[in-house]
Every structure is written in structure tokens, then in C-alpha cells.
């Protein structure tokens, strides 16, 4: 036998499961990672006391300006992210919420992910070296390039590594620097043929670049829209699809003559 509930009591009783569900969702871990602007590093100089690019077997040139690779920082793969964390990040421009699987390979332990990112970085460095030497028509059997960048994993520094090698070995081919003495930042994967690929977290990387003094940002052309979404004031975007195109754009920018591609 059931007693009849008054309307207020009925609403209260029905609301209890909803409140409980919302409370549970607020504290339950969600499959997301929180990201923010990370470190940048000048590949033409030192990082943590070690030269980022070391070349032997060919004469190198002194460079001015900077070529800064950019990163994002993400919560570790075993960090619990709650609904409250997601809501807070949603309304901020210096944080972003990304599916955890888009930041870390799924189904792997933290140690396995670290190893994977290290392998990705090594492969990226090898491709960056081959792309740069191919662009310069130099024999990679006689030239040894060593790339060192502590505490950074993944392939997204490939383009900047290649540009750094090109600048140290050939500059703008007329005796000048690719940077024109400016602080140039950017991101992008690269393969051995010099093709530039898309990466994640571009809008956060532009913030890191601006924070560390960059005035120009090289971005994979496919990600122009993402880069423009939260573009810091005073930072110029140059879209790139190949190493050759990136070098050409920097030469044009340095000379001040001709049209530089824009997003």
C-alpha cells in the first residue's frame, strides 16, 4: 500500500537522484587531460646547460636571434580530472581540456607512455636531421648531428629542429640568419622528406611563444584556425606545409620584400 505524496514532497523525492548524480559526476574522474602552455626552448642555443644542436663533420656558423620550439604541459595520465576541473578550464584561455587519448596513447602505463614519448622524440630528431641535410644537399654519412632536449617528448619539435640545423649550416644562403635576429617560435612534426605535419595544443603553444618573447609563430597550415582562435596580440602567424616553404617564408620575412604567407 502506497501513501500519496504532496507535490512538494514528490518534487523533493524525484530531485534526490538527480542531485546525487550531479554530486557523483562532480567528483568522479573523467577521461580528460588538462593542458596549459609549457616550456619553450631555443634550438639554436642551450637548454639546461647543454647545446641543443651539435654538428660535426661540416663547418657551422654563429647565429643570432632564436628559434624556439614550443610545448604544452598536461596532467599526468594517472591524474584524476573531475567535472569541476573541466568546467574551470572551460572558461579559461590559459588552459584547455583535451581527451586523454589524444594526449597519451590509451591502454599503456605511465612508464610505457614515457618510453613511447621518448621514442617519438628520437624518431622526430632523426627525421629532422635527414630533412635538413636533404634540403641543403649535404651527405648525411659525413655529417653527424646530435640533438639534446631534456624533459621533452613527442614529435612536435621536428620542424624547429630542422630549421635550427639549416640555420647553423647554411643560414639564409647569403650569409645572414634565418631569424633575422628575431625570436621565431613554432611547432610541427616533420618527416624525412621535409613535409610538415599537424600537432595538438596549438592555441596554448602560441601563448607560450608570446610569453617567451616571440613575435612570429610558424604553424602547420592545417591548424591555422586553431592558432587564430586564441592568438596573443602582437604574434604573427606564418602557415607552413614543408621545410622548404618555412625557410622561404623566413627569408622573405627577413628581407622585407615579397609577400609572406598568412593564416
TrEMBL record:
<feature type="domain" description="Lon proteolytic">
    <location>
        <begin position="153"/>
        <end position="236"/>
    </location>
</feature>
<dbReference type="InterPro" id="IPR020568">
    <property type="entry name" value="Ribosomal_Su5_D2-typ_SF"/>
</dbReference>
<keyword id="KW-0732">Signal</keyword>
<feature type="signal peptide">
    <location>
        <begin position="1"/>
        <end position="28"/>
    </location>
</feature>
<dbReference type="InterPro" id="IPR014721">
    <property type="entry name" value="Ribsml_uS5_D2-typ_fold_subgr"/>
</dbReference>
<dbReference type="InterPro" id="IPR027065">
    <property type="entry name" value="Lon_Prtase"/>
</dbReference>
<keyword id="KW-0378">Hydrolase</keyword>
<dbReference type="GO" id="GO:0008233">
    <property type="term" value="F:peptidase activity"/>
</dbReference>
<keyword id="KW-0645">Protease</keyword>
<protein>
    <submittedName>
        <fullName>S16 family serine protease</fullName>
        <ecNumber>3.4.21.-</ecNumber>
    </submittedName>
</protein>
<dbReference type="Pfam" id="PF05362">
    <property type="entry name" value="Lon_C"/>
</dbReference>
<dbReference type="InterPro" id="IPR008269">
    <property type="entry name" value="Lon_proteolytic"/>
</dbReference>
<dbReference type="GO" id="GO:0006508">
    <property type="term" value="P:proteolysis"/>
</dbReference>
Amino acid at each position: 500500500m502506497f501513501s500519496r505524496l504532496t507535490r512538494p514532497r514528490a518534487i523533493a523525492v524525484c530531485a534526490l537522484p538527480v542531485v546525487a548524480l550531479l554530486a557523483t559526476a562532480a567528483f568522479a574522474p573523467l577521461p580528460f587531460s588538462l593542458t596549459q602552455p609549457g616550456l619553450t626552448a631555443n634550438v639554436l642555443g642551450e637548454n639546461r646547460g647543454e647545446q641543443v644542436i651539435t654538428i660535426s663533420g661540416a663547418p657551422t656558423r654563429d647565429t643570432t636571434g632564436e628559434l624556439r620550439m614550443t610545448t604544452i604541459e598536461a596532467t599526468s595520465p594517472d591524474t584524476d580530472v573531475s567535472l569541476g576541473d573541466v568546467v574551470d578550464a572551460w572558461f579559461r584561455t590559459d588552459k584547455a581540456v583535451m581527451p586523454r587519448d589524444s594526449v597519451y596513447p590509451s591502454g599503456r602505463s605511465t612508464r610505457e607512455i614515457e618510453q613511447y614519448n621518448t621514442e617519438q622524440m628520437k624518431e622526430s630528431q632523426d627525421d629532422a636531421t635527414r630533412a635538413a641535410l636533404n634540403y641543403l644537399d649535404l651527405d648525411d654519412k659525413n655529417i653527424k648531428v646530435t640533438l639534446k632536449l631534456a624533459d621533452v617528448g613527442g614529435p612536435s619539435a621536428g620542424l624547429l629542429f630542422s630549421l635550427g640545423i639549416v640555420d647553423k649550416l647554411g643560414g639564409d644562403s647569403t650569409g645572414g640568419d634565418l631569424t633575422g635576429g628575431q625570436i621565431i617560435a613554432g611547432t610541427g612534426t616533420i618527416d624525412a622528406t621535409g613535409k610538415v605535419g599537424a600537432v595538438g595544443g596549438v592555441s596554448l603553444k602560441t601563448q607560450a611563444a608570446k610569453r617567451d618573447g616571440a613575435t612570429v609563430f610558424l604553424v602547420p597550415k592545417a591548424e591555422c584556425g586553431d592558432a587564430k582562435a586564441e592568438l596573443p596580440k602582437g604574434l604573427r602567424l606564418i602557415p607552413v606545409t614543408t621545410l622548404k616553404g618555412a625557410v622561404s617564408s623566413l627569408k622573405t620575412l627577413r628581407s622585407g620584400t615579397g609577400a609572406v604567407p598568412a593564416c
